[in-house]
Design brief:
Layout lengths: L1 E5 L3 H7 L10 E8 L2 E8 L3 E6 L5 E6 L4 E5 L16 E5 L12 E8 L12 E8 L7 E9 L3 H5 L5 E11 L2 E10 L9 H11 L9 E7 L2 E10 L16 E5 L14 E3 L6 E6 L5 H19 L3 H7 L2 H13 L11 E5 L5 E3 L56 H14 L5 H14 L3 E2 L5 E2 L1 H8 L7 H24 L20 E13 L10 E2 L2 H8 L11 E6 L14 E5 L5 E2 L8 E5 L4 E6 L9 E10 L4 E12 L5
Parallel strand pairs: 8-13, 22-30
Antiparallel strand pairs: 1-7, 2-3, 2-7, 4-5, 5-6, 8-9, 9-10, 10-11, 11-12, 12-14, 13-14, 15-17, 15-18, 16-17, 18-19, 20-21, 23-28, 24-29, 25-26, 25-27, 27-28, 29-30
Helix pairs in contact: 3-8, 4-5, 6-7
Length: about 650
């Protein structure tokens, strides 16, 4: 081992020995100590001629034979907090790499230095950076150039502690996780336990859901500033070490309101699904052609048709049913209400394969989070007796009445329902014990104290709590609540699944192809007076007579179910609009009768519902005025008869100011 620089030799050492010529081994191990916190990384030595330290003692400079320099910055001058000293204690170099412990449960350190010290303010635009990773002797260290930006939706917009996405310039392993360029740093700010994502990822893996991200924790430093405790995760994407499917014919989708056509109307890679009006985004392939997008939409519609008709054989031929069941059961276990939106639901199809669910992702909306204080709150684990699916999923008896029928219509089939019960029984008894036992090992790592330069010991969790104090909550108490909640939750779900009714046995029905066009077989007109002062909440509903719709479609009212009847909004010219309201069916409309987005358009009135024949309505109190009139159109589509019925609703706004 050769010592290059030591604090006590600050002046004379550098003057006498500005660089050190290294033995030409394959790798050398450089160790930097600052404020008692070690940081180490490997440097390839095949063409290294020497190592120096910058004049301000803030950068290690590695010289190479081709006269390039590799600058490895660490804590910047001017930054200091208690127990985090400024400046360099020592640098040492070893001629070979150390043996590694490979303890993934420890908490590591990631140092990010951005170009010119730039702050990360965007989740769209990357900025150049250098990343050094201290693995605490468990894995080979890492120093690599790359780019960094923000990530997330609500977590980026609402919270001071930000999540990030890092893209290395070259593929590298990170903390023992398989080589890739793209990595995610999850802030987990809302989750005081820090392990809700951990438990759910471990449970997903135990239940057999594919491509679940490995779990690591690290303390993050950006330009020398301690940013807190982060979870390191893989970016969900297609690749050899990620979602490993055929690069020519593989498909990766997400069902996500944020990435879908409502909130991302201009992205060009999303669509409303044909039967259930789900917001679908195509994550792979990239750079979609119109033909590819239409083909994927048609393929997904065939799956929807199989589900809507309750055909086990058709659904089984198109979708990996065990992964679908595991996904539903994990969402129920965590009480992840974003299944209702939906958000962060990934599924893929390999070449020649079936639609398969995974990777499992994003759980901080679960565990009965209190949405009343969603911008500032940390309250979870209230009632364990709430349910997404209920005791009769086909009738949607769960607590979340807006759950899309896509997730429940197969429960009309006896064989699927039996498989759902059998699969749950295969792992229910150990679904808490096994994932929680490993979760506890990660908790031990979060609480593992590290000795600092002043001789004190403090844990990564302790430093997180000091950097991001949360009044009224402690990690230890919240973890006890989480453990108790999960144990009670499993008992409760056992009781729910046990009483799900088994439908009568029947042959799988023939499934008609979705029509490419619909013949308008009639129009229903409605007229209402809406009070401007009532705003979003009017004291009436738009009620549609089911028998009248059936007569116009030429079928029986008993045949009109969410499985056979679609309801879509139309623009003023008769083209299909976007579902931009909160319900399963409906939209916001502008004053010309075109569908619009609440946040980016000029919203005027809305219709929305989770019921085909009873619709809530309202007006935008700032955009609608007395004596204004607006006519909007919803369309029923019946696949079996290839016919459609338009419902034209005229609203007159009364009671507001006008001049």
């Amino acid at each position: 081992m050769a010592k290059i620089y030591c604090k006590c030799l600050l002046g004379c050492f550098l003057a006498l020995l500005p660089s050190l010529v290294l033995a030409q081994t394959d790798w050398m191990q450089m160790h930097v100590s600052q404020g008692g916190y070690p940081w180490a990384f490997p440097i390839p030595t095949r063409n290294v001629t020497g190592v120096t330290v910058s004049d301000d003692h803030q950068t290690v400079i590695v010289g190479t034979e081709d006269q390039r320099t590799i600058e490895v910055p660490y804590l910047r001058a001017g930054y200091a907090t208690a127990n985090w000293a400024v400046g360099l204690d020592s640098i040492t170099v070893e001629d070979s790499l150390a043996d590694w412990g490979r303890d993934k449960y420890k908490v590591f350190a990631i140092h990010v230095t951005t170009e010119d010290g730039a702050e990360i303010t965007s989740k769209e635009n990357y900025i150049p950076c250098f990343v050094s990773v201290d693995t605490r002797g468990q894995y080979p260290q890492l120093g690599v150039s790359g780019r960094i930006r923000g990530r997330g939706n609500s977590t980026w917009e609402w919270y001071e502690k930000k999540p990030y996405r890092i893209k290395f310039d070259t593929g590298n392993k990170l903390l023992g996780i398989a080589k890739n360029k793209d990595w995610v740093l999850l802030a987990n700010w809302r989750d005081v336990t820090k392990v809700m994502n951990t438990y759910c990822s471990l449970a997903a893996d135990y239940m057999g859901l594919p491509f679940t991200t490995p779990i690591r924790f690290a303390e993050l430093f950006i330009n020398g500033e301690y940013r807190g405790l982060y979870q390191v995760a893989e970016q969900v994407e297609v690749g050899k070490n990620r979602v490993d499917i055929d690069e020519e014919q593989g498909i990766l989708l997400t069902l996500d309101a944020d990435d879908g056509p409502n909130l991302s109307p201009n992205s060009g890679d999303n669509f409303w699904s044909a039967v259930y009006r789900l917001p679908v985004c195509v994550k792979y392939p990239k750079d979609l052609t119109r033909e590819q997008l239409d083909s994927i939409k048609a393929d997904f519609a065939r799956l929807e048709q199989a589900i809507s008709y309750g055909s086990y054989s058709a659904a089984d031929s198109l979708m990996d049913l065990p992964s679908f069941i595991a996904m539903l059961q994990l969402q129920e276990l965590a009480y992840n209400v974003e299944l209702e939106a939906p958000r962060s639901l990934f599924l893929f199809r390999d070449k020649g394969g079936k639609w398969t669910w995974g990777p499992a992702w994003d759980w901080d909306a679960g565990f009965d989070f209190s949405w009343s204080d969603m911008y500032t709150g940390h309250t979870y684990f209230r009632s364990y007796q709430t349910s997404l699916l209920g005791t009769d999923p086909y009738k949607r008896t769960g607590s979340r009445g807006g759950l899309n029928h896509f997730f429940s219509d197969l429960f009309q089939n006896r064989k699927f329902t039996e498989q759902f019960k059998t699969q749950w029984a295969s792992y229910a008894d150990s679904l808490f014990l096994k994932p929680w036992a490993e979760t506890q090992l990660y908790i031990n790592g979060l609480d593992d104290a590290i000795r600092l330069s002043d001789g004190s010991y403090t844990s990564p969790q302790g430093r997180e709590d000091k950097r991001w104090p949360i009044s009224g909550f402690t990690p230890s108490n919240e973890r006890l609540k989480m453990k108790k909640w999960l144990k009670n939750r499993l008992t409760y779900i056992n009781s729910l699944i046990d009483v799900i009714p088994l439908p009568e046995e029947r042959e799988d029905p023939d499934i008609p192809d979705l029509p490419t066009s619909y013949k308008i077989s009639g129009t229903i007109t409605k007229a209402y007076t809406m009070q401007q002062s009532g705003g979003y909440s009017q004291n009436f509903k738009v009620e549609i007579d089911k028998d009248e719709v059936a007569a116009l479609l030429g079928t029986d009212a008993s045949e009109l179910t969410p499985a056979t009847l679609a309801l879509v909004p139309l623009n003023a010219d008769g083209s299909e609009g976007s579902n931009t309201a909160a319900g399963t069916y409906g939209a916001w409309f502008d004053d010309d009768g075109n569908t619009t987005n609440f946040n980016s358009g000029y919203p005027y009135v809305y219709l929305e519902s989770n019921d085909l024949f009873s619709w809530h309505c309202g007006c935008h109190p700032n955009n609608s005025w007395s004596c204004d009139d607006c006519t909007v159109t919803m369309q029923y589509r019946h696949a079996a008869t290839a016919s459609a019925v338009n419902v034209r609703v005229s609203f007159s706004i009364q009671g507001g100011w006008w001049w």
